[in-house]
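Thread: Protein THEM6, structure

OP (GT): Posting the sequence first so everyone is looking at the same thing. Length is 222 residues per the record. Can we get the structure tokens written out before standup tomorrow? I want them in the notebook alongside the other entries.
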Amino acid sequence: MLACWVLAGVLGAIVLLHTLLEVHYFLRMFFTLFLARFCKKRVHILDETSVYGICTTTDVDTLLYHMNNARYLRELDFARVDFYERTSLYREIRSQGTGVVQGAATIRYRRFLKPLSIFKITSKIIYWDDKSIFMEHRFITPSDGFVRAIAICRQRVLDCSAEAVISVLMDRGVKQNQNVEAGVTQIPHVRPQIPPEVARWLESNEISSATLRQPENVTTPC
């Protein structure tokens, strides 16, 4: 009888946990961080990283034949954690400031991902200013190399300068391999030109912000 009550309690706790939290999301985030920290090599801040995923039955939309649009942005959480850890970007931000948040994101869907299809997400920094770091993510199917979707995300750093963070990481570099005498990737510290699509996107964000700041869009408490 006691064993039955214990089993019922354990099952109840599991059901409650899955009801209150998206358990598999946190488990996958843990394993992504673990692999990035202990199993993958460190990379330079301007290098490109990649993670793999699969469109499971819990990712599909109501029509049941392709991945839900919202899941693409969710998948970017894992890609960013992998990038942050392997480049030491997050640790450097924490050492100079308080953290980093997602400021904005835009995504363009080119061709849907079918259920149970494998995809790769590549991540790289394409631009930065004093307050933000801009990253480009591509969803690619390895079978044909086709870019299924492309996203641009603006990461806002808190209480520090993005330029200062990038400068430290670029100056530090990473060891390429033990056989290289210098042992450090040498990349000139030059901020890249802002990509045209990012420039237009920022203009759109500024227009949106200006519209929301207009008096008629400001709500007053009752």
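GT: Both are above now. Quick notes for whoever picks this up: The beta strands are 49-54, 99-109, 118-128, 132-141, 146-158. The domain at 20-194 is CATH 3.10.129.10 (Thiol Ester Dehydrase; Chain A).
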